[in-house]
Amino acid sequence: MQRPRNLPCGHTFCTSCINGLKELGHVTCPNCRLVHVVPDAGQFPISYITEDFIRRLRGTAPASLLGKAGKDAGEPVPSLDMQPDVKGAECLSRAIRSMLQEQEEKVLATIRGCQELQVQLDHYQTSLGVWGEQQQHLEDRLQTLVDRSKGARLLVRQEEAQVEDKRKQVQQGEQQQHLMLRRLRSVTSRQEAFEAIDDADLLADQESQRTQAWQEMFPKVPTVATIRKMRVTSRAALKAVQTMEAALDAKNMEENTENAEGTVDTEGACGDDEAETSAPAAPPSTILTRLEALLAPTLEAEDLYLLMPPTRSLLEAGLVFATHTIEGEKRYAQVSLQDDCLYLHSLQDQRPPPRAAVVPIDEVVPVAPPCLVFLDLTWPDSPPCRVLVRLIPDTPLGRQFIWLCTGERGPCYANTTFFHLKYSGQPGERVSGGDYERNNGKGGSPLLPDLDKGDYRESRRAGAVHAVWRGDDRSNWNSNFGILIKDLEEEGDPVDTVFGEIEAGMEGVMEAAKQYYITDVVVKDCGVVLWAE
Protein backbone atom coordinates (compact mmCIF):
# COMPACT_ATOMS: atom_id res chain seq x y z
CA MET A 1 0.00 0.00 0.00
CA GLN A 2 1.24 3.47 -0.80
CA ARG A 3 1.59 6.18 1.81
CA PRO A 4 -1.62 7.78 3.09
CA ARG A 5 -2.01 11.50 2.49
CA ASN A 6 -4.36 14.13 3.91
CA LEU A 7 -6.44 16.44 1.71
CA PRO A 8 -7.17 19.93 3.09
CA CYS A 9 -10.81 18.90 3.65
CA GLY A 10 -9.61 16.30 6.20
CA HIS A 11 -10.19 13.11 4.20
CA THR A 12 -7.32 10.65 3.75
CA PHE A 13 -6.42 8.56 0.68
CA CYS A 14 -3.36 6.66 -0.51
CA THR A 15 -0.86 8.35 -2.80
CA SER A 16 -1.83 6.25 -5.82
CA CYS A 17 -5.51 7.15 -5.47
CA ILE A 18 -4.74 10.85 -5.15
CA ASN A 19 -2.46 10.73 -8.20
CA GLY A 20 -5.34 9.19 -10.13
CA LEU A 21 -7.62 12.05 -9.08
CA LYS A 22 -5.27 14.83 -10.25
CA GLU A 23 -6.65 16.87 -13.11
CA LEU A 24 -5.18 20.16 -14.35
CA GLY A 25 -3.43 20.78 -11.04
CA HIS A 26 -6.54 20.12 -8.93
CA VAL A 27 -7.94 17.19 -6.97
CA THR A 28 -11.64 16.66 -6.21
CA CYS A 29 -12.27 14.83 -2.93
CA PRO A 30 -14.40 11.70 -3.64
CA ASN A 31 -16.13 12.08 -0.26
CA CYS A 32 -17.13 15.74 0.07
CA ARG A 33 -16.50 16.86 -3.58
CA LEU A 34 -14.38 19.84 -2.49
CA VAL A 35 -11.78 20.88 -5.08
CA HIS A 36 -8.21 21.34 -3.82
CA VAL A 37 -5.16 22.82 -5.54
CA VAL A 38 -2.21 20.45 -5.75
CA PRO A 39 0.70 21.90 -3.70
CA ASP A 40 3.85 23.11 -5.43
CA ALA A 41 5.71 20.02 -4.15
CA GLY A 42 3.34 17.86 -6.20
CA GLN A 43 1.94 15.90 -3.25
CA PHE A 44 -0.36 16.54 -0.30
CA PRO A 45 0.97 16.13 3.27
CA ILE A 46 1.55 12.60 4.57
CA SER A 47 -0.88 11.31 7.22
CA TYR A 48 1.64 10.01 9.73
CA ILE A 49 -1.09 9.15 12.24
CA THR A 50 -2.86 6.90 9.72
CA GLU A 51 0.44 5.41 8.64
CA ASP A 52 1.42 4.64 12.22
CA PHE A 53 -2.00 3.09 12.86
CA ILE A 54 -1.64 0.79 9.83
CA ARG A 55 1.83 -0.26 10.89
CA ARG A 56 0.67 -1.09 14.39
CA LEU A 57 -2.15 -3.20 12.98
CA ARG A 58 0.36 -5.12 10.87
CA GLY A 59 2.92 -5.31 13.66
CA THR A 60 5.85 -4.33 11.38
CA ALA A 61 6.68 -1.72 8.80
CA PRO A 62 6.39 -3.34 5.33
CA ALA A 63 9.44 -3.04 3.14
CA SER A 64 7.22 -2.07 0.21
CA LEU A 65 6.00 0.92 2.17
CA LEU A 66 9.51 1.97 3.06
CA GLY A 67 10.63 1.46 -0.52
CA LYS A 68 7.85 3.50 -2.06
CA ALA A 69 8.20 6.34 0.41
CA GLY A 70 11.29 7.67 -1.29
CA LYS A 71 9.61 7.51 -4.68
CA ASP A 72 6.43 9.22 -3.58
CA ALA A 73 7.71 11.92 -1.30
CA GLY A 74 11.50 11.88 -1.51
CA GLU A 75 11.78 11.84 2.30
CA PRO A 76 12.63 9.24 4.96
CA VAL A 77 9.91 7.42 6.85
CA PRO A 78 10.24 7.76 10.63
CA SER A 79 9.74 4.37 12.26
CA LEU A 80 7.78 4.17 15.52
CA ASP A 81 8.10 0.44 16.01
CA MET A 82 11.86 -0.18 16.05
CA GLN A 83 12.61 -3.37 17.98
CA PRO A 84 15.11 -3.15 20.84
CA ASP A 85 18.42 -4.94 20.67
CA VAL A 86 17.48 -8.18 22.48
CA LYS A 87 21.06 -9.42 22.89
CA GLY A 88 22.18 -6.13 24.42
CA ALA A 89 19.15 -5.95 26.69
CA GLU A 90 19.81 -9.40 28.28
CA CYS A 91 22.71 -8.04 30.33
CA LEU A 92 20.60 -5.22 31.80
CA SER A 93 18.63 -5.46 35.01
CA ARG A 94 14.83 -5.51 35.05
CA ALA A 95 14.71 -2.03 36.63
CA ILE A 96 16.91 -0.53 33.91
CA ARG A 97 14.89 -2.27 31.18
CA SER A 98 11.73 -0.86 32.76
CA MET A 99 13.25 2.63 32.82
CA LEU A 100 14.30 2.25 29.19
CA GLN A 101 10.83 1.08 28.19
CA GLU A 102 9.24 3.99 30.04
CA GLN A 103 11.58 6.44 28.36
CA GLU A 104 10.95 4.79 24.98
CA GLU A 105 7.20 5.32 25.41
CA LYS A 106 7.86 8.93 26.29
CA VAL A 107 10.00 9.39 23.17
CA LEU A 108 7.37 7.69 21.02
CA ALA A 109 4.70 9.99 22.45
CA THR A 110 6.90 12.97 21.62
CA ILE A 111 7.39 11.67 18.07
CA ARG A 112 3.64 11.28 17.66
CA GLY A 113 3.16 14.81 18.94
CA CYS A 114 5.66 16.05 16.35
CA GLN A 115 3.87 14.11 13.62
CA GLU A 116 0.47 15.47 14.66
CA LEU A 117 1.90 18.99 14.67
CA GLN A 118 3.43 18.37 11.25
CA VAL A 119 0.04 17.25 9.91
CA GLN A 120 -1.54 20.44 11.25
CA LEU A 121 1.24 22.59 9.82
CA ASP A 122 0.92 20.79 6.47
CA HIS A 123 -2.82 21.46 6.49
CA TYR A 124 -2.24 25.09 7.35
CA GLN A 125 0.47 25.46 4.69
CA THR A 126 -1.79 23.93 2.05
CA SER A 127 -4.63 26.23 3.12
CA LEU A 128 -2.32 29.23 2.87
CA GLY A 129 -1.40 28.22 -0.67
CA VAL A 130 -5.05 27.89 -1.65
CA TRP A 131 -5.85 31.24 -0.03
CA GLY A 132 -2.98 32.84 -1.88
CA GLU A 133 -4.37 31.65 -5.21
CA GLN A 134 -7.89 32.71 -4.25
CA GLN A 135 -6.61 36.11 -3.13
CA GLN A 136 -4.73 36.50 -6.41
CA HIS A 137 -7.97 35.70 -8.24
CA LEU A 138 -9.84 38.27 -6.15
CA GLU A 139 -7.06 40.78 -6.72
CA ASP A 140 -7.29 40.21 -10.47
CA ARG A 141 -11.06 40.78 -10.33
CA LEU A 142 -10.57 43.89 -8.23
CA GLN A 143 -7.93 45.10 -10.68
CA THR A 144 -10.45 44.55 -13.47
CA LEU A 145 -12.92 46.67 -11.53
CA VAL A 146 -10.27 49.37 -11.01
CA ASP A 147 -9.38 49.29 -14.73
CA ARG A 148 -13.03 49.68 -15.66
CA SER A 149 -13.32 52.53 -13.18
CA LYS A 150 -10.31 54.20 -14.80
CA GLY A 151 -11.92 53.67 -18.20
CA ALA A 152 -15.11 55.30 -16.96
CA ARG A 153 -13.10 58.22 -15.59
CA LEU A 154 -11.39 58.57 -19.00
CA LEU A 155 -14.82 58.68 -20.65
CA VAL A 156 -15.77 61.45 -18.24
CA ARG A 157 -12.69 63.44 -19.23
CA GLN A 158 -13.33 62.90 -22.94
CA GLU A 159 -16.96 63.92 -22.56
CA GLU A 160 -15.91 66.91 -20.49
CA ALA A 161 -13.42 68.00 -23.21
CA GLN A 162 -16.10 67.72 -25.92
CA VAL A 163 -18.58 69.67 -23.85
CA GLU A 164 -15.98 72.37 -23.20
CA ASP A 165 -15.23 72.58 -26.94
CA LYS A 166 -18.92 72.91 -27.79
CA ARG A 167 -19.42 75.43 -25.01
CA LYS A 168 -16.71 77.64 -26.51
CA GLN A 169 -18.30 77.34 -29.97
CA VAL A 170 -21.70 78.27 -28.53
CA GLN A 171 -20.09 81.25 -26.81
CA GLN A 172 -18.54 82.36 -30.13
CA GLY A 173 -21.92 81.95 -31.82
CA GLU A 174 -23.54 84.08 -29.16
CA GLN A 175 -20.90 86.80 -29.69
CA GLN A 176 -21.60 86.76 -33.46
CA GLN A 177 -25.31 87.17 -32.72
CA HIS A 178 -24.55 90.15 -30.50
CA LEU A 179 -22.46 91.71 -33.29
CA MET A 180 -25.29 91.04 -35.76
CA LEU A 181 -27.74 92.68 -33.33
CA ARG A 182 -25.55 95.79 -33.14
CA ARG A 183 -25.32 95.84 -36.97
CA LEU A 184 -29.12 95.69 -37.28
CA ARG A 185 -29.45 98.57 -34.87
CA SER A 186 -26.88 100.72 -36.72
CA VAL A 187 -28.38 100.47 -40.28
CA THR A 188 -28.56 103.87 -42.10
CA SER A 189 -29.71 102.92 -45.65
CA ARG A 190 -32.25 100.67 -47.36
CA GLN A 191 -29.55 98.67 -49.15
CA GLU A 192 -27.64 98.20 -45.91
CA ALA A 193 -30.84 97.10 -44.16
CA PHE A 194 -31.62 94.38 -46.75
CA GLU A 195 -28.03 93.09 -46.56
CA ALA A 196 -28.09 93.06 -42.75
CA ILE A 197 -31.43 91.22 -42.71
CA ASP A 198 -30.19 88.55 -45.13
CA ASP A 199 -26.93 88.05 -43.18
CA ALA A 200 -28.78 87.94 -39.82
CA ASP A 201 -31.30 85.41 -41.16
CA LEU A 202 -28.53 83.15 -42.50
CA LEU A 203 -26.52 83.44 -39.30
CA ALA A 204 -29.56 82.69 -37.15
CA ASP A 205 -30.45 79.61 -39.22
CA GLN A 206 -26.90 78.29 -38.97
CA GLU A 207 -26.79 78.84 -35.22
CA SER A 208 -30.22 77.24 -34.71
CA GLN A 209 -29.19 74.13 -36.65
CA ARG A 210 -25.96 73.86 -34.72
CA THR A 211 -27.74 74.39 -31.41
CA GLN A 212 -30.30 71.69 -32.21
CA ALA A 213 -27.55 69.24 -33.27
CA TRP A 214 -25.66 69.78 -30.04
CA GLN A 215 -28.84 69.50 -28.01
CA GLU A 216 -29.35 66.03 -29.48
CA MET A 217 -25.67 65.12 -29.04
CA PHE A 218 -25.65 65.49 -25.26
CA PRO A 219 -25.84 63.62 -23.03
CA LYS A 220 -24.36 60.57 -24.75
CA VAL A 221 -26.40 57.61 -23.51
CA PRO A 222 -23.64 54.93 -23.66
CA THR A 223 -21.19 57.21 -21.86
CA VAL A 224 -23.58 58.17 -19.07
CA ALA A 225 -24.80 54.57 -18.70
CA THR A 226 -21.23 53.32 -18.37
CA ILE A 227 -20.34 56.00 -15.83
CA ARG A 228 -23.49 55.33 -13.79
CA LYS A 229 -22.91 51.58 -13.80
CA MET A 230 -19.34 51.97 -12.57
CA ARG A 231 -20.42 54.40 -9.85
CA VAL A 232 -23.06 51.97 -8.59
CA THR A 233 -20.66 49.00 -8.78
CA SER A 234 -17.84 50.85 -7.02
CA ARG A 235 -20.10 52.12 -4.26
CA ALA A 236 -21.58 48.64 -3.75
CA ALA A 237 -18.10 47.14 -3.52
CA LEU A 238 -16.98 49.75 -1.00
CA LYS A 239 -20.16 49.30 1.03
CA ALA A 240 -19.67 45.52 1.07
CA VAL A 241 -16.09 45.98 2.28
CA GLN A 242 -17.20 48.39 5.02
CA THR A 243 -19.99 46.03 6.12
CA MET A 244 -17.63 43.05 6.24
CA GLU A 245 -15.01 45.03 8.17
CA ALA A 246 -17.65 46.14 10.69
CA ALA A 247 -18.86 42.54 11.10
CA LEU A 248 -15.32 41.26 11.59
CA ASP A 249 -14.57 44.03 14.09
CA ALA A 250 -17.72 43.13 16.02
CA LYS A 251 -16.81 39.45 15.98
CA ASN A 252 -13.25 40.16 17.16
CA MET A 253 -14.58 42.38 19.94
CA GLU A 254 -17.01 39.65 21.03
CA GLU A 255 -14.25 37.02 20.99
CA ASN A 256 -11.96 39.30 22.99
CA THR A 257 -14.73 39.87 25.53
CA GLU A 258 -15.33 36.13 25.85
CA ASN A 259 -11.61 35.51 26.25
CA ALA A 260 -11.40 38.23 28.93
CA GLU A 261 -14.36 36.74 30.82
CA GLY A 262 -12.88 33.27 30.55
CA THR A 263 -9.42 34.32 31.84
CA VAL A 264 -8.50 32.71 35.17
CA ASP A 265 -6.44 34.49 37.83
CA THR A 266 -3.54 32.07 38.02
CA GLU A 267 -2.10 33.61 41.19
CA GLY A 268 -5.39 33.24 43.02
CA ALA A 269 -5.92 29.76 41.63
CA CYS A 270 -2.58 28.52 42.88
CA GLY A 271 -3.50 29.42 46.44
CA ASP A 272 -7.01 27.96 46.31
CA ASP A 273 -7.18 24.17 46.07
CA GLU A 274 -10.95 24.19 45.83
CA ALA A 275 -10.86 26.51 42.83
CA GLU A 276 -8.33 24.23 41.16
CA THR A 277 -10.43 21.14 41.58
CA SER A 278 -13.71 22.78 40.55
CA ALA A 279 -12.43 24.38 37.34
CA PRO A 280 -12.73 21.90 34.43
CA ALA A 281 -9.75 21.51 32.15
CA ALA A 282 -10.20 23.30 28.86
CA PRO A 283 -9.95 21.13 25.74
CA PRO A 284 -6.56 21.34 24.02
CA SER A 285 -6.34 24.04 21.40
CA THR A 286 -4.70 23.09 18.13
CA ILE A 287 -3.76 24.97 14.99
CA LEU A 288 -6.66 23.44 13.08
CA THR A 289 -9.30 24.09 15.75
CA ARG A 290 -8.24 27.73 16.10
CA LEU A 291 -8.13 28.06 12.32
CA GLU A 292 -11.62 26.55 12.05
CA ALA A 293 -12.92 28.99 14.65
CA LEU A 294 -11.38 31.95 12.80
CA LEU A 295 -12.82 30.86 9.45
CA ALA A 296 -16.32 30.05 10.71
CA PRO A 297 -18.79 32.36 8.91
CA THR A 298 -21.00 34.57 11.06
CA LEU A 299 -24.75 34.24 10.72
CA GLU A 300 -27.68 36.01 12.32
CA ALA A 301 -31.36 35.04 12.41
CA GLU A 302 -32.07 38.07 10.21
CA ASP A 303 -29.70 36.70 7.56
CA LEU A 304 -31.77 33.51 7.39
CA TYR A 305 -34.99 35.48 7.22
CA LEU A 306 -33.79 37.73 4.37
CA LEU A 307 -32.17 34.85 2.44
CA MET A 308 -29.52 37.04 0.84
CA PRO A 309 -27.21 35.37 -1.75
CA PRO A 310 -24.35 34.56 0.71
CA THR A 311 -26.78 32.87 3.11
CA ARG A 312 -28.50 31.04 0.26
CA SER A 313 -25.11 29.71 -0.90
CA LEU A 314 -24.37 28.38 2.61
CA LEU A 315 -27.79 26.71 2.73
CA GLU A 316 -27.34 25.09 -0.68
CA ALA A 317 -23.96 23.76 0.47
CA GLY A 318 -25.53 22.29 3.65
CA LEU A 319 -23.46 24.58 5.90
CA VAL A 320 -26.14 26.20 8.11
CA PHE A 321 -26.91 24.75 11.54
CA ALA A 322 -28.81 25.79 14.67
CA THR A 323 -27.23 24.96 18.01
CA HIS A 324 -28.79 24.14 21.37
CA THR A 325 -27.18 23.20 24.69
CA ILE A 326 -28.71 20.42 26.82
CA GLU A 327 -27.11 19.69 30.19
CA GLY A 328 -23.84 21.21 29.05
CA GLU A 329 -23.74 19.27 25.77
CA LYS A 330 -24.15 21.05 22.47
CA ARG A 331 -26.37 19.56 19.79
CA TYR A 332 -26.87 20.75 16.23
CA ALA A 333 -29.86 20.93 13.88
CA GLN A 334 -29.28 21.36 10.17
CA VAL A 335 -31.25 24.05 8.34
CA SER A 336 -32.09 23.17 4.74
CA LEU A 337 -33.61 25.17 1.89
CA GLN A 338 -36.22 23.44 -0.25
CA ASP A 339 -38.61 25.24 -2.59
CA ASP A 340 -37.65 28.56 -0.94
CA CYS A 341 -38.78 27.22 2.46
CA LEU A 342 -36.42 26.86 5.42
CA TYR A 343 -36.62 23.54 7.27
CA LEU A 344 -34.95 23.15 10.66
CA HIS A 345 -34.36 19.42 11.23
CA SER A 346 -34.21 17.63 14.57
CA LEU A 347 -31.18 18.14 16.79
CA GLN A 348 -28.30 15.65 16.49
CA ASP A 349 -25.15 14.96 18.50
CA GLN A 350 -22.92 15.09 15.42
CA ARG A 351 -20.88 18.27 15.03
CA PRO A 352 -21.37 20.31 11.85
CA PRO A 353 -18.68 20.23 9.13
CA PRO A 354 -15.83 22.76 9.17
CA ARG A 355 -16.69 26.35 8.23
CA ALA A 356 -20.40 25.81 8.86
CA ALA A 357 -22.44 28.82 9.97
CA VAL A 358 -24.20 28.38 13.31
CA VAL A 359 -27.12 30.30 14.81
CA PRO A 360 -28.76 29.73 18.24
CA ILE A 361 -31.90 27.63 17.88
CA ASP A 362 -33.94 29.86 20.18
CA GLU A 363 -33.46 32.76 17.75
CA VAL A 364 -35.20 30.97 14.88
CA VAL A 365 -37.62 28.39 16.34
CA PRO A 366 -41.00 29.68 17.57
CA VAL A 367 -41.68 29.12 21.27
CA ALA A 368 -45.39 28.50 20.75
CA PRO A 369 -48.02 27.98 18.04
CA PRO A 370 -49.26 29.05 15.59
CA CYS A 371 -46.47 27.57 13.49
CA LEU A 372 -45.75 24.85 10.93
CA VAL A 373 -43.88 21.61 11.74
CA PHE A 374 -43.05 18.59 9.60
CA LEU A 375 -42.81 14.80 9.94
CA ASP A 376 -40.91 12.75 7.33
CA LEU A 377 -42.60 9.33 7.15
CA THR A 378 -41.03 6.21 5.65
CA TRP A 379 -42.12 2.58 5.26
CA PRO A 380 -40.77 -0.39 3.27
CA ASP A 381 -40.53 -0.01 -0.52
CA SER A 382 -41.69 3.61 -0.47
CA PRO A 383 -39.91 6.96 -0.78
CA PRO A 384 -40.08 9.35 2.18
CA CYS A 385 -43.23 11.41 2.53
CA ARG A 386 -43.17 14.84 4.18
CA VAL A 387 -46.24 15.74 6.23
CA LEU A 388 -46.77 19.39 7.22
CA VAL A 389 -48.75 19.98 10.42
CA ARG A 390 -50.18 23.40 11.24
CA LEU A 391 -50.21 23.81 15.03
CA ILE A 392 -53.08 26.12 15.98
CA PRO A 393 -54.18 27.52 18.41
CA ASP A 394 -51.56 28.02 21.14
CA THR A 395 -52.00 25.01 23.45
CA PRO A 396 -49.73 23.06 25.85
CA LEU A 397 -49.83 20.07 23.48
CA GLY A 398 -48.85 22.35 20.58
CA ARG A 399 -45.83 23.66 22.50
CA GLN A 400 -44.83 20.13 23.49
CA PHE A 401 -45.19 19.04 19.85
CA ILE A 402 -42.65 21.72 18.81
CA TRP A 403 -40.16 20.47 21.40
CA LEU A 404 -40.60 16.87 20.27
CA CYS A 405 -40.12 17.83 16.62
CA THR A 406 -36.87 19.69 17.34
CA GLY A 407 -35.58 17.66 20.31
CA GLU A 408 -34.94 20.82 22.33
CA ARG A 409 -35.82 19.09 25.61
CA GLY A 410 -34.03 15.83 24.77
CA PRO A 411 -36.80 13.44 23.59
CA CYS A 412 -37.75 13.62 19.92
CA TYR A 413 -40.24 12.12 17.49
CA ALA A 414 -37.40 11.22 15.10
CA ASN A 415 -37.05 7.43 14.67
CA THR A 416 -40.37 6.71 16.42
CA THR A 417 -43.07 4.60 14.76
CA PHE A 418 -46.83 4.60 14.40
CA PHE A 419 -48.14 2.01 16.87
CA HIS A 420 -51.91 1.75 16.39
CA LEU A 421 -54.56 1.95 13.65
CA LYS A 422 -58.16 2.34 14.85
CA TYR A 423 -61.46 1.96 12.95
CA SER A 424 -59.67 0.77 9.81
CA GLY A 425 -61.73 1.48 6.69
CA GLN A 426 -64.54 3.10 8.71
CA PRO A 427 -65.58 6.70 9.36
CA GLY A 428 -63.29 8.17 11.99
CA GLU A 429 -60.31 5.98 11.01
CA ARG A 430 -57.21 7.26 12.77
CA VAL A 431 -53.58 6.38 13.35
CA SER A 432 -51.53 6.92 16.54
CA GLY A 433 -47.83 7.60 17.11
CA GLY A 434 -45.43 9.68 19.17
CA ASP A 435 -44.36 7.18 21.87
CA TYR A 436 -40.67 8.13 22.00
CA GLU A 437 -39.99 5.70 24.86
CA ARG A 438 -41.57 2.36 23.83
CA ASN A 439 -43.21 2.81 20.41
CA ASN A 440 -46.29 0.91 21.62
CA GLY A 441 -48.48 3.56 23.23
CA LYS A 442 -47.50 2.63 26.78
CA GLY A 443 -44.73 5.20 27.02
CA GLY A 444 -44.21 8.80 25.98
CA SER A 445 -43.90 10.73 29.23
CA PRO A 446 -45.18 14.33 29.02
CA LEU A 447 -42.67 17.17 28.83
CA LEU A 448 -45.08 19.78 30.16
CA PRO A 449 -47.47 19.75 33.11
CA ASP A 450 -51.20 20.47 32.80
CA LEU A 451 -51.47 19.39 29.17
CA ASP A 452 -55.26 19.20 29.58
CA LYS A 453 -55.58 22.90 30.46
CA GLY A 454 -55.41 24.18 26.89
CA ASP A 455 -58.15 25.64 24.73
CA TYR A 456 -58.44 22.72 22.31
CA ARG A 457 -60.69 22.64 19.24
CA GLU A 458 -63.27 20.14 18.09
CA SER A 459 -63.21 18.55 14.65
CA ARG A 460 -64.80 15.78 12.58
CA ARG A 461 -62.58 16.42 9.57
CA ALA A 462 -59.79 14.19 8.27
CA GLY A 463 -56.33 15.65 8.96
CA ALA A 464 -57.09 16.71 12.53
CA VAL A 465 -54.15 16.10 14.91
CA HIS A 466 -55.32 15.34 18.43
CA ALA A 467 -54.33 13.96 21.84
CA VAL A 468 -54.12 10.21 22.53
CA TRP A 469 -54.31 8.65 26.02
CA ARG A 470 -53.16 5.37 27.45
CA GLY A 471 -56.31 3.27 27.52
CA ASP A 472 -59.49 5.20 28.29
CA ASP A 473 -57.98 7.42 30.99
CA ARG A 474 -58.46 10.96 29.65
CA SER A 475 -56.40 12.31 32.53
CA ASN A 476 -53.30 10.50 31.30
CA TRP A 477 -52.01 13.06 28.79
CA ASN A 478 -48.60 12.32 27.24
CA SER A 479 -46.51 12.75 24.08
CA ASN A 480 -48.65 10.45 21.92
CA PHE A 481 -50.75 11.94 19.13
CA GLY A 482 -53.39 10.79 16.69
CA ILE A 483 -54.23 11.76 13.10
CA LEU A 484 -57.80 11.48 11.85
CA ILE A 485 -57.65 9.79 8.44
CA LYS A 486 -61.36 9.71 7.55
CA ASP A 487 -64.13 12.17 8.42
CA LEU A 488 -66.37 11.34 11.35
CA GLU A 489 -70.10 10.95 10.80
CA GLU A 490 -72.08 14.10 11.53
CA GLU A 491 -74.22 12.40 14.18
CA GLY A 492 -71.14 11.12 16.02
CA ASP A 493 -69.17 12.93 18.71
CA PRO A 494 -66.32 15.08 17.39
CA VAL A 495 -62.70 14.80 18.47
CA ASP A 496 -62.42 17.47 21.15
CA THR A 497 -58.63 17.61 21.78
CA VAL A 498 -57.45 18.92 18.41
CA PHE A 499 -54.28 21.04 18.54
CA GLY A 500 -53.27 20.95 14.85
CA GLU A 501 -54.22 19.90 11.35
CA ILE A 502 -52.46 18.38 8.34
CA GLU A 503 -51.68 21.15 5.84
CA ALA A 504 -49.85 19.01 3.26
CA GLY A 505 -48.98 15.34 2.84
CA MET A 506 -52.36 13.87 3.84
CA GLU A 507 -52.10 11.43 0.92
CA GLY A 508 -48.92 10.04 2.46
CA VAL A 509 -50.63 9.50 5.83
CA MET A 510 -53.50 7.68 4.13
CA GLU A 511 -51.04 5.48 2.24
CA ALA A 512 -49.10 4.78 5.43
CA ALA A 513 -52.32 3.61 7.12
CA LYS A 514 -52.65 0.88 4.45
CA GLN A 515 -49.50 -0.91 5.63
CA TYR A 516 -50.06 -4.46 6.88
CA TYR A 517 -47.99 -3.67 9.97
CA ILE A 518 -48.62 -0.09 11.05
CA THR A 519 -45.40 -0.24 13.09
CA ASP A 520 -43.49 -0.32 9.79
CA VAL A 521 -44.26 3.39 9.41
CA VAL A 522 -41.32 5.34 10.86
CA VAL A 523 -40.91 9.06 11.53
CA LYS A 524 -37.46 9.24 9.92
CA ASP A 525 -37.00 12.94 10.60
CA CYS A 526 -38.95 15.89 11.91
CA GLY A 527 -38.56 19.57 12.64
CA VAL A 528 -39.97 23.06 12.16
CA VAL A 529 -40.64 25.13 9.05
CA LEU A 530 -39.08 28.52 9.84
CA TRP A 531 -41.13 31.67 9.38
CA ALA A 532 -43.97 29.81 7.67
CA GLU A 533 -47.04 31.96 7.21
UniProtKB/TrEMBL annotation:
Domain RING-type: 7-33
Pfam family, one: zf-RING_UBOX
Molecular-function GO terms, alphabetical: zinc ion binding
UniProt keyword Zinc present: yes
UniProt keyword annotation of Transport present: no
Organism: Scylla paramamosain (Mud crab)
Superkingdom: Eukaryota
Annotated segments matching region Disordered: 252-282, 430-449
Protein name: RING-type domain-containing protein
Keywords: Metal-binding, Zinc, Zinc-finger
Listed Gene3D superfamilies: Cyclophilin-like (2.40.100.10), Zinc/RING finger domain, C3HC4 (zinc finger) (3.30.40.10)
